[in-house]
Design goal:
Elements lengths: L10 H10 L10 H4 L11 E3 L1 H14 L2 H4 L3 E3 L16 E7 L4 E7 L3 E7 L3 E5 L2 E4 L5 E4 L5 E5 L9 E7 L1 H6 L5 E3 L13 H6 L20 E2 L1 H14 L8 E4 L14 E7 L3 E2 L3 E3 L3 E8 L1 E5 L6 E5 L4 E4 L5 E5 L3 E7 L1 H7 L4 E3 L2
Antiparallel strand pairs: 1-20, 2-3, 3-10, 4-9, 4-11, 5-8, 5-10, 6-7, 6-9, 8-12, 13-14, 14-22, 15-21, 16-23, 17-20, 17-22, 18-19, 18-21
Bound molecules: 1-hydroxynaphthalene-2-carboxylic acid.
The site of 1-hydroxynaphthalene-2-carboxylic acid has 10 residues, from strand 3 and strand 10.
Length: 356
Amino acid sequence: MDMTPPPPEGVRKDFYEAIRAQHMTPLWEVLHALVPQQPATACMPAFWAWDRVHPYLMQAGELITAEEAVRRVLILENPALPGQSCITQSLYAGLQLILPGEIAPSHRHTQSALRFVVEGRGAYTAVDGERTTMTPGDFIITPSWTWHDHGNQSALEGGEPVVWLDGLDIPMLRFFDAGFAENHTERSQSVTRAEGTSYQRYGANMLPVRYDAPFGQTSPIFSYPYERTREALHTLEQQAPVDAWDGVKLRYVNPATGGWPMPTMGTFMQRLPPGFDGRPWRQTDGVVFSVVEGHGSVLVGEAGQQQTFKFGPRDHFVIPSWHTASLRSAQGCVLFSFSDRPVHQALGIHREERLS
Ligand code: 1HN
């Protein structure tokens, strides 16, 4: 047994001071925090009610044009991480507004983006020469380093204010110091393919004979229409077993690989049938939810500090890493969600627990 008594008060402190000048610090003072026994995220659960968010989005529409803003977005900031532009440690989320007749100019960056359309009709987004119309419930991808711009029809042509959820891997790229960006010379890139070309080429359970992975590790389908997703979920709800934790939950796929549609973000859509009273789960990937249809509630947190968020259409919420959560819905609902699960899995560190 080691019987060395600790040195007198202040001796260690003086030592720490001395080594600080050499840009060194003792591991033993921080070891527990560096290697926690279980995830101890700085993030907190948070909820953005649509009826509180929507008026501010419309106000933003009066304060600045999409052109001047480049992207007119209100960032959803985790309340425990103010000023960091992130909703979890690894993910950015924001709500973007584009008004009739507006253009959000073309640029590209190494950060990958997903769009989940929340409200309104008439807008399009263009990715590498192809446009896709944005319809509520559609999941759309802007792969890393692809030119992208957004636009909206004039009010005369039926354009409405369109709002979507942006999910980006900004904090991850910041962590890796791997961010690059470039502006296009034109406001809108020129269209080189007819709308729907990618979906017909890659989204019909077939692939071109000489498949060329146009976006590298990212799915060649850049728009996943809600119509198809909705039909699948509702049919499965009628004719297949319902999972006690998730209801009917599907993940989006890259049809060429069977893997995630994006290398950094996994996306999901789930249907909770009427009367669903889900069992609790926790997982290392923090998740952002967008409510598509219906109402329900989520109970989140550990015994002693639990909270319930009651949600309805177009509400958003975040469940941080390793927080226990369970979902309920009396009338039934549909939820879109995204997380950084592909990265956890690629690194072999993903964990989840399904509790009873
Ligand atoms: C971006 O390019 C978009 O293209 C949205 O719509 C949000 C946030 C930070 C950096 C780039 C977009 C963004 C962004």
